Amino acid sequence: MDLSWLTQYVVAVVVLIVTTVGLALLLHLQMGLAGIGNFGIVGFYGVGMYGFGMCLVHIPWPDAWGMLLPILLSLLLGTVAAGLAGLLVGWLIVGLDADGILLGTLGFASIVYGLAQTNRDWTGGAEGMGTTQFPYDIGSQKANTLLWLGITVVVVALILLYVIQVHRSPYGRLLIATGQNEPLARSLGKPTFHGKLAMFATTSALMGLLGGMYGIMLHYIRPVELLITVTLAAIVGLVVGGQTRAWGAVVGVVLVGVLFELVFMIWIPFKTEWRRQALPVLRQMLYGATLIGVLMFRPLGILGRMRRDKSVRRPSGA
Q1: What are 221's strand-pairing partners?
Q2: What is the pTM of this model?
């Protein structure tokens, strides 16, 4: 089989698509079940990414530990930092209306980007900060990246299993009831605030884990990785696939990612100057146009034939 088309850059893009699938799955729990429209996904993703990088670079790890243990511990610390950020932000916003939640999460993402851009001593500022190579070496850089793709797929598959289990649990039914009619659920004695807060903190921590893992693949973290495109890709993919279905996040992000990241950005032979300047901006415009089009003509998404009231009767609709 001829795999000459599978360059290292294409593999790196596929890693990004798989990572976005994970982010969309977590957004599905927030927005599709609990009704929390998180427009600051890239903020929690960035906390995990930069938390990993700063712990790895600035903590004086013992030389005897090698590289694997410091990388794993730094990844864990970055995940915990994102979870704590989610707990704090969630405590401030989950009781607000939809507009307040959107503005609050967007503001948080802007704060994270600003800190990464300006705090030169800790984050490297606009120039960024180097981290490390992969914690293994199986040959060429392409082979190492392919193995990291496999590891990322396993992590995202575990996130998918977690999301499906939430669908099938009483906790998932609480989230669905909260997203559908929170005042009614609260009047029945359901702990809606604490349920949403726990879910938001957990999903934010996992977003940070995905950010840290992508930071490992990059080897050099820059603020440009924290642009709104990350949030748009997850939101558009989830809405295209169907925000009330777990598999909708997978189907939507894969379709949108292959179209915009592989076909549009790599395989269509645009001029080099277009690729550097016009295409990234045009891609964001296409994300927005796709989101508007889906909301106008198929608001439930590709897999969204099941109405939300049916998802209450059959919580296993993943």
Answers
A1: 129
A2: 0.87
